[in-house]
């Protein structure tokens, strides 16, 4: 039995909360187990009481029929144990038909309460009938019924209890059930069972007691279940936050080591080249060129430090600041495009932006972070596109009108065909270019959740960008990722080598629900879109 | 008839470093070939195994260079090609990575910490490639 109980508890604990009927059935089975143990206690106490009574007053002999329902209760309890064990085994089976087992569990609980009420009535019949104060046990059964059963089933059990009790009381009153037995052999009956006004009062009191107990217990049980579900949701949110914090800590620890390498690399190279000039290893005519390269490398180093400072600002600021902030997306897009227009024009690239008709779009992100994020995406698009080419920035509010909280499980609700892949209640900003695109290896790494690194990791750059010798710090996409993840947004990447790339960042437009984690689980925030779709225009 | 020139492959994401190595080892009679990424280095090695590889550790990923060194040791054609690691953080990474791979040391012949001197690089290369082969 204990083993069965532990198994039931383990089942209940590991049960996914989304599977409510199965979870509820397992909880009910666990409570059934407790009910069975209580019944054993009752059988033991009742038999001990009869034995003691026989010992104290040997002359008072109880009728044999009284022992029968008690022994019957013991036999029925053995059957209940067997059924409980069978149902637990059914739940453990991988190929189990859950709906059938759940139905059986509901029937099992109902049968137990109904049979108990019947046996209680039989015991009362032989121990004083309506004069026996043990009739209060009906109320006790109503409490158990309200805990174990669905509300409608519990009410049916209440009606069944009233039918049994009324049958007993009226049966004795009209003489169908005879002869009347005393509550205790030492106390002869005062004859209340034959008085109509007493019977009527008892029936009214019992009916009030039964249904009031049902009402209050069902009410409290309902509230407890709602609280339990809220607690489970909060627990899941906390677990996701914990995982996110762990991931963040690991990323930051790696960042320090990599940053040291990346900053030391250019300095070391400058040092080596200067020593080569000093030792006259660099030919006289190549010295000006080498100085120019050294200077270039110094500028790269300064740019790296500047971007690292931006990254540090984004990382170290209060992650909850985005909930308090609101950025004007359209204005930021216009401003960034205006800033980068000269750079794009110098490379022969057409830079354009496309805003929705209702250009008044605000998103829950710190305005400086949004500007950094977009600036890096546009900068990258121009950097990896050779003229003549095109870079476009598009703002989409397609799903704004459908803003709604995510489901309890954190999963996205199903979306109809043609609806954009980003979460509802987000505004999407897409930067598309006609540049070199990502090489398949880099794209594969990005799509692989188990990959050790991706281009969104700080200092990590795409292989084809490195091979092409295009200078870059490798920090830009790290800033994008940090800002987007902190505000609870998502990133979508689509790219084809030699044809171009499309980076979409989505920013929430509504505050998160109470049961959503304060620190989001960022490990699934980047999605690689299929190659079968055209690059976003 | 003179022997063919020894070919040294530099795998490093910094083109300026390729230039520095060329300036130091070119006059010594070596042919210096550069690869800016790990895959480009593998391609260059597969086509024609070099006499020696100068390898950076942090390429596209923090340990791509070391992964490459382990791969070379598994490849019968490249197993005997000596490897010199050139890295800004080689020493601090060496122990951790070797331990992760279950080794006591990395499968490389030398480790040169950046910045390196011209003489340091020359000495390291000469100790691995016989001088007679260097100066045909």
Write a structural description:
The complex is a heterodimer of chains A (537) and B (136). Chain A has 537 residues and is α/β, with parallel strands linked by helices. Chain A has 14 helices and 8 strands. In chain A, the strands form 2 sheets. Chain A has a 6-stranded mixed beta sheet, with helices on one face. In chain A, a hairpin with a 3-residue loop joins strand 6 and strand 7. With 136 residues, chain B is of the alpha/beta class. Chain B is built from 6 helices and 5 strands. In chain B, strand 4, helix 4 and strand 5 form a beta-alpha-beta unit. Chains A and B meet through helix 7, helix 8 and helix 13 of A and helix 1 and helix 2 of B.
Summary of the model, kept short:
The complex is a heterodimer of chains A (537) and B (136). Chain A contains 14 helices and eight strands.
Q: SSE order of chain A in H/E notation?
A: HHHHHHHHHEHEEHEEHHHEEE
Rg of chain A, rounded, reads: 38 Å
The string of secondary-structure elements of chain B, in order, is EHEHEHEHEHH
Tally of helical runs of chain A: 14
List low-confidence stretches of chain A.
1-18, 400-413
Give the strand content of chain A.
5-15%
Strand element count of chain A: 8
| Count of individual helical segments of chain B | 6
Strand order, sheet with most strands of chain A: 2-4-5-7-6-8
